[in-house]
Specification:
The complex is a heterodimer of chains A (about 700) and B (about 325). Chain A is an alpha/beta fold and about 700 residues long. Chain A is built from 28 helices and 19 strands. Chain A has five domains: about 55 residues; about 120 residues, Alpha-Beta Plaits (2-Layer Sandwich); about 130 residues, Alpha-helical ferredoxin (Fumarate Reductase Iron-sulfur Protein, Chain B, domain 2, Orthogonal Bundle); about 160 residues, FAD/NAD(P)-binding domain (3-Layer(bba) Sandwich); about 140 residues, FAD/NAD(P)-binding domain (3-Layer(bba) Sandwich), CATH 3.50.50. Helices cover about 35% and strands about 15% of the residues of chain A. In chain A, the strands form six sheets. Chain A has a five-stranded parallel β-sheet, sandwiched between helices. Chain A has a five-stranded parallel β-sheet with strand order 7-14-8-9-10. A three-stranded antiparallel β-sheet of chain A has the order 11-12-13, with no helix packed on it. Chain B has 13 helices and no strands. The relative contact order of chain B is 0.14. The chains are: A alpha/beta (about 700), B mainly alpha (about 325).
Chain lengths: ~700, ~325
């Protein structure tokens, strides 16, 4: 009987389970029998069942007993979306605070370490976000000065920089990047007339002297930093005008000379001394430099053009790109008037050489590069401008032989198709095809690369060059084998951009300052940020309002401009600059700027943003986040450029009232004049219902 | 007035007892069910998994109080109270120690058989007030079942009352002799089975059968109100086991004092485990089988038992 089983559990030990089960089924069959037999049989089957379960209860479970462990929070946990800050508050009621207060908050955010993508992607970490912020408010002088802290010549770089900042600009993701580089130029043009009241000689407080060899971007950057620190700085330049590659290498149609020299003059006014037409190793011996100065920075750059080593390359009419550019830029005459010119190379120097050749009177200019047109190392916008001006591109062709006439003058060039430029290991190792092309040209310009010429400079200093003529040096702190000699710029890094050279100049100046202060050059030194930034696919601009698009840079007419060295880019107006600055999204400030991209991204239409967007009075006025419609997809937070909108760590439903989880037509169609920005507290909820707390 | 305050105190005490027995009961049920199915049951929460139920209780307490839109709110709200209050009240006549009960009354046995039956009203109220077909069906089923099983249950207890010659639980427990156990064995079995049916527990859980009626008469309940239904189930089981121990198994016998209380607790716990054992062994019955068991098997068995006891008394 059932109760007996409880008190006397022998039942599960008495017999094996097999006959029990059999007996149970037999008994079940007998329960239909009438009378005593059926009655007893029914009770026996009940006892059998109880016996089986009791037996199970005392056997070892077949499941696994898991160890107790605390469940970790998944890394990409998503609670409710939450607006971290707009006007410094998480509740976003109808905001009536003045734009000034808002701007103050933005300015405070700049003081913290929220590195914007534009700033992080710039080799010199130029604060482009700060520039845009000032530009939007029309404070051009402040914008210029802010940029100059890291980019010593904003006017110059505003015309020639290859702008990695714009590549990283988050606005790429939405429509088009901010015109950061043209804004440098606008800022310079507003600064230039009033600069006299800002540019003043800086005091020399340290009593130590630094010599810098080379007045290119790297040398000037180092000089600027050191002068600001109070050192006495003297730059030695072997040419008769300062500027280095900016002056001799970059054509005047991209960089007018008065701009460059105006900005160099500012540096001179501040206290940088520049001695031109002085070649180290010829006019002044390196030993004397060592004796006279406490530290020396070699920023000599790249002076010689490399040649490919083909037959006939020593013929008359073949020359290096640097010589060619120097002649064209400096004298406006390169001896190619009326000739057909072929430029060998696919980099920016080659494009410059080709475009200069047109301007000094060449009849037809060809440009042959090993790389296909997809892989050209030159910046695409420069290639495009060159094509506009009539340069004939012959991509995928390598030099085979320079054809010469009896008097060893160039009469043509034979090109060979190039199949691939790099081998599997990524090394430069071109393979050529069997197709040959012969061009009838009278001049060939080799623009396949540049090298440094430092023999004279290092003679007698104790420094030694390696087999290829390069100066062995540290690429992060820019020291050399001799303690008081530092090296920076392209003679260390190889061919690169102007802004990268400026960055090395800043670093070298820091090293010099540490060295002269008696500190270790490398200890406790924070490495410059080298972050990886998103690559953006080309934006689809079909449905973007014109007011949101980037200001279009006006160009001079290609047919006219290719005849002389007039400006190609004509620059933005101040009004365009103001609008452009206002397009900036203030990335990573953690303060909502009311860009409305969250509202545009939201698949459930639960975000409503309203803002004032007038220049000088730009702020978010309403932010409505309707969590009753939110599906927690996280897209809004994923794309928020400022990081102000985040997914909170809350449990998904922890903030819900029951009425919010149900679809309520009235609620969904409500007037969004009230806001419910977060689920963080009830106050916003009450506010949305018109209740005061 | 002292009687009033005494009632309040004993009511609160019994409420706490029911609460604790619910926590331990649900834990024990999951453990017993687990082991019968060769599983472990709750085991990761602290103290052999008991805290699992504490967490559950906290969750239930903090859940939102939901009312179906169509429900009769008044009835809906008080129905759980009609379930738990009679159970808690009935505990007051149980002699927890030899010679002592919170309420020592000469009709204690009748009180215990009568008062918990009021929870039939709770079942009907709950089933009706939700305006839900499942719930109404469950409520009607539950009411029919509980009323039917009152008969064999009362008759089974009558056998012991005849032997003891009293309906006062304290006196009955004092009169109890070990030879009563074999004599009243049939009555005990009938009481045990009828109690399961009274509590709407498996295999007699037709009223709530989860797979067809989705919880039956408490389909639309949630949160703390739902927890009160669970309290009535586990509290009722504890009360039935206590009463069964006192009436059929001699209560504190063979010891007295504090040890006697422990003996009573051990007997109660074993009976509760037996209730769970039965639930996890037998499949649910059909309604016709349920009624047939009551009227054709248990009631005749109880009557036979009364005859046996009558013969024994005459023979003594």
């Amino acid at each position: 009987m059932a109760v007996d089983d409880v008190d006397t559990p022998e039942i599960d030990t008495g017999e094996s389970s097999e006959p029990k089960v059999t007996q149970g089924t037999v008994s079940a069959a007998t329960t239909d029998q009438a009378g005593v037999a059926g009655f007893v049989g029914a009770w026996k089957s009940l006892a059998t069942g109880l016996g089986i379960t009791a037996k199970h209860a005392f056997t070892k479970p077949v499941t696994i007993q898991y160890p107790r462990e605390k469940a970790p929070m998944p890394e990409r946990w998503r609670g409710a979306p939450r607006l971290v800050s707009a006007m410094g508050t998480t509740e976003v009621p109808l905001m009536e605070a003045s734009s000034l207060e808002y701007n103050g908050l933005i300015a405070d955010a700049y003081a913290t370490d929220h590195l914007a993508p534009c700033q992080g992607n710039c080799p010199a970490n130029v604060d482009a976000r700060g520039q845009n912020y000032h530009a939007a408010e029309g404070r051009w002088v402040e914008a210029y000065q802010l940029v100059r802290e890291r980019n010593i010549m904003p006017g110059t770089l505003g015309r020639i920089c290859h702008h990695p900042c714009e590549t990283a600009c988050k606005r790429n993701f939405y429509d088009e990047p901010i015109a950061i580089r043209p804004l440098h130029r606008v800022a310079y043009e507003q600064w230039n007339p009033v600069k006299a009241q800002y540019v003043k000689p800086l005091p020399k407080t340290r009593g130590k002297k630094v010599a810098i060899i080379g007045s290119g971007p790297s040398g000037l950057a180092a000089a600027y930093d050191l002068v600001k620190l109070g050192y006495e700085v003297k730059i030695f330049e072997k040419e008769d005008k300062p500027g280095g590659a900016l002056y001799y290498g970059i054509p005047a149609y991209r960089l007018p000379r008065d701009i460059l020299h105006g900005e160099i003059d500012d540096l001179v006014t501040m206290g940088v001394e520049i001695q031109c037409s002085t070649k180290i190793g010829v006019d002044i011996s390196p030993e004397q430099l060592m004796a006279d100065y406490d530290a020396i920075i070699i920023a000599a750059g790249l002076q010689i053009s490399r040649f490919p080593g083909v037959k006939g390359q020593d013929a008359i009419g073949v020359r290096g790109a640097l010589d060619f550019l120097k002649d064209s830029n400096y004298r406006g005459e390169a001896g190619v008037r009326g000739q057909n010119v072929l430029v060998i190379g696919g980099g920016n120097v080659a494009v410059d050489a080709a475009r200069c050749a047109l301007r000094v009177g060449a009849k037809t200019v060809y440009m042959a590069s090993l790389e296909s047109d997809e892989q050209l190392p030159a910046h695409p916008w420069e290639v495009e401008e060159a094509l506009d001006e009539g340069v004939v591109m012959m991509c995928g062709n390598g030099p085979n032989e320079v054809l010469v006439d009896e008097s060893n003058h160039v009469r043509g060039m034979r090109l060979q198709t190039c199949l691939s430029v790099f081998d599997e290991t990524g090394r430069f190792n071109p393979t050529f095809g069997d197709d040959f092309t012969e061009l009838s040209v009278q001049s060939v310009v080799m623009a396949i690369g540049q090298g440094s010429d430092l023999k004279d400079i290092v003679a007698g200093t104790g420094l030694e060059l390696d087999q290829r003529g390069n100066l062995p040096s540290d690429r992060s702190v820019f020291t050399t084998a001799v303690p008081k000699i530092f090296a920076s710029g392209e003679c260390v890094t190889g061919p690169g951009s102007a802004i990268a050279s400026i960055a090395t100049g800043h670093e070298a100046a820091t090293s010099v300052h540490r060295f002269l202060s008696g500190e270790s050059v490398s200890d406790d030194r924070v490495a410059r940020t080298l972050l990886a930034y998103d690559k953006y696919a080309p934006a689809n601009l079909d449905h973007v309002e014109p007011s949101r698009l980037r200001a279009v840079m006006p160009f001079s007419d290609p047919d006219e401009r290719s005849k002389d060295f007039r400006n190609v880019e004509l620059g933005l107006t101040v009004e365009e600059g103001l609008a452009e600055g206002a397009r900036c999204l203030r990335c990573e400030t953690n303060i909502c700027v009311g860009c409305t991209f969250c509202a545009r991204t939201c698949p459930d239409y639960c975000i409503t943003v309203e803002r004032r967007d007038d220049p000088g009075d730009r702020m978010v006025t309403k932010y409505d986040l309707d969590l009753s419609k939110c599906c927690f997809c996280g897209l809004c937070a994923e794309q928020c450029p400022t990081g102000a909108l985040q997914m909170s760590g809350q449990y998904e439903l922890s903030f819900y009232n029951r009425d919010l989880t149900l679809f309520d037509k009235g609620e969904m169609l409500r007037d969004v004049s009230g806001t419910r920005a977060t689920g963080a507290d009830a106050a916003a909820d009450h506010a949305s219902k018109g209740e005061t707390t | 007035m002292t009687g009033y305050w005494g009632g309040v105190v004993w009511g609160l005490g019994a409420g706490v007892l029911v609460g604790i027995s619910t926590i331990l009961g649900v834990w024990g049920e999951r453990k017993v069910a687990g082991h019968i199915q060769k599983r472990y049951g709750p085991n990761t929460a602290p103290v052999f998994g008991i805290f699992q139920l504490v967490y559950d209780l906290l969750k239930l307490l903090t859940k939102e109080d939901i009312h179906p839109k169509q429900a009769r709110r008044g009835l809906f709200n008080i129905a759980p109270l009609f379930m738990t209050t009679p159970i808690i009240s009935s505990l007051v006549i149980i002699p927890f120690a030899a010679g002592w009960a919170p309420l020592d009354t000469s009709i204690g046995i009748l009180f215990f058989l009568a008062v918990p039956s009021i929870s039939v009203l709770g079942v009907l109220f709950a089933g009706w007030s939700q305006r839900n077909t499942y719930a109404s069906l469950g409520g009607l089923r539950g009411a029919a079942q509980m009323i039917s099983y009152e008969v064999p249950r009362s008759l089974s207890v009558l056998a012991v009352v005849m032997l003891a010659g009293t309906m006062q639980p304290v006196t009955l427990m004092g009169e109890w002799r070990i030879w009563w156990l074999p004599v009243t064995l049939i009555a005990f079995v009938v009481y045990f089975i009828a109690s399961i049916a009274e509590l709407n527990r498996g295999p007699f859980d037709l009223a709530e059968c989860d797979s067809e009626l989705v919880g039956g008469y408490f389909t639309d309940y949630s949160g703390i109100r739902w927890a009160m239904f669970m309290m009535s189930e586990y509290g009722g089981m504890t009360a039935a086991a206590l009463f069964g121990s006192v009436v059929f198994l001699g209560g504190t016998w063979p010891l007295s004092g504090v040890l006697g209380v422990l003996v009573l607790l051990v007997k109660t716990v074993l009976l509760v485990i037996a209730f769970m054992w039965a639930k996890w062994t037998f499949p649910r019955m059909r309604p016709d089988q349920l009624m047939a068991t009551s009227w054709k098997v248990l009631t005749p068995m109880a009557l036979v038992q009364i005859v046996i006891v009558g013969v024994v008394i005459a023979w003594l």
